[in-house]
Amino acid sequence: MRTIDLIQRKRNGEELLPEEIDWLVSSYTRGEIPDYQMSAFLMAVYFQDMNDVEVGAMVQSIIASGEKLDLSGVAGPKVDKHSTGGVGDKTSLIAAPLAAAAGVKVPMISGRALGHTGGTLDKLESIPGFNTAISTEQFIAQLNEIGIAMAGQSPTMTPADGKLYSLRDATATIESTALIAASIMSKKLASSLDGLVLDVKVGSGAFMKRQIDARRLAQLMTTIARRADLRCQALITDMSQPLGYAVGNALEIMEVSQTLQNGGPVDLTRISLELAARMIHIGGLTESLDDAREVAQARLLDGSGYAKLKQVIDAQGGNSQVLDRFDLLPNATGAMEITSPRAGFVSMIDAEEIGSASTMIGAGRDTKEASIDPAVGVILEVKVGQRVEAGSVLCRLYYTGEERLEDAAERIEDAFRISTTVPEARELILEIVG
Ligand code: URA
């Protein structure tokens, strides 16, 4: 087989055979195909897409690139949750502890910031000392002891996804339904779960801008799960404005803490509770979804979800006091206010622009080698629908260096639309698939 022939056939819109996809993925993982050829292949997939059989083959090849995580020694229902990526999307850090506090075992394998979206691993690593690269032994022991462990894709588990993920981030090939489905589902099927709850984001801050594409992604992932006998449900949720008020790693940890103490933003609390409830229900801990909703709410109100997050932080080497003392988290050195040019109603806060501006000042990565500045980001002061006066503060930009600050501030100004009429309210949870 020759890489160039496979690139050419995919570029021309042809279907590749499972063994051809497997050869590409395994050769690339072994370093036998250079980044430039794999980039060309990914771009061809971006434009020509892959059908269900090709995606299924890619999932299997990515799984076969490493070892599976054997969780047979963990008693109880093992349920994970994964988001397709958004701006200010910190729901994993809220839903997972709530579900674990209710008795679900949560083996969470998360990702890093990708494009303009944030990543759970980067958020966790803004907590001083937190180790997201724990050993498999610790991961399993922690699941048995406290019911939850949070780590990244490791060099032994789905290494092909690790390589492909950073290559896609640097080659503008993230927004492909087929590639996102293969990336997420390979990680999930490699960790022998009993259940999976997916949060498929749609809107400007998501990779899927249109509901029809989000639906196709949700259907593709739930079909892959069904074929593998994995109970799976996907929620399609709105990502047209950032979720909650905080965007940026340490800033989001602060908002997670407030939310788990029942003092968080309404939108973030609502989605997190629904995701936790679905994890509890899919894990078979309640008869009905309504019962699971009551359990999730109770774990929020009695503080046990909050206590569970503290346990994970301590178990993985972090200092859980950061949840009460925000001064122990990395803090920005400067803040810039963005104000409203006129009175009216906030009719749009373009999540992609807010995410890109945060990335520009260091909250995300422009290149795969770049490091993250955990302290920086944006705190919104308003949400869509709110009335503002001329000069009202719309958001604050927190920074540690002035490089690219002006450009980022301009992008943020452009993200806001102020209109004379009240915008139509948008549903937060748009569809359930599976
Ligand atoms: N999350 C992943 O794990 N992979 C993607 O491609 C996008 C979001």
Q: Could you tell me which ligands this complex binds, including any ions or cofactors?
A: uracil
Beta-sheet strand percentage? 15-25%
CATH class of the largest domain: Alpha Beta
Mean pLDDT: 95
Describe the protein's topology:
Elements: H1 3-11, H2 18-29, H3 35-48, H4 52-64, E1 79-83, H5 92-101, E2 106-110, H6 120-125, H7 136-146, E3 148-152, H8 159-170, H9 177-189, E4 195-202, H10 211-227, E5 231-238, E6 246-247, H11 249-260, H12 266-282, H13 289-301, H14 304-315, E7 334-339, E8 344-349, H15 351-360, E9 377-380, E10 387-388, E11 393-399, H16 405-415, E12 416-419, E13 429-433
Parallel strand pairs: 1-4, 2-3, 4-5
Antiparallel strand pairs: 5-13, 6-9, 7-11, 8-10, 8-12, 9-11
The structure holds uracil (URA).
Residues 84-85, 111, 114, 179-180, 183-184 line the site of uracil (URA).
Walkthrough of the structure:
With 434 residues, this protein is of the alpha/beta class. Helices cover 44% and strands 15% of the residues. It has a 4-stranded mixed beta sheet, sandwiched between helices. A 4-stranded antiparallel beta sheet has the order 6-9-11-7, with helices on both faces. Strands 10-8-12 form a 3-stranded antiparallel beta sheet. α5 (92-101) packs across α12 and α5 (92-101) packs across α14. The two termini are 38 Å apart. The protein binds uracil. The site of uracil has 8 residues, from α9. Uracil is lined by residues 84-85, 111, 114, 179-180, 183-184.
Q: What's the gist of this structure?
A:
The protein is of the alpha/beta class. It is built from 16 helices and 13 strands. The protein has helices at about 5-10, 20-30, 35-50, 50-65, 90-100, 120-125, 135-145, 160-170, 175-190, 210-225, 250-260, 265-280, 290-300, 305-315, 350-360, 405-415; strands at about 80-85, 105-110, 150, 195-200, 230-240, 245, 335-340, 345-350, 375-380, 385-390, 395-400, 415-420, 430-434.
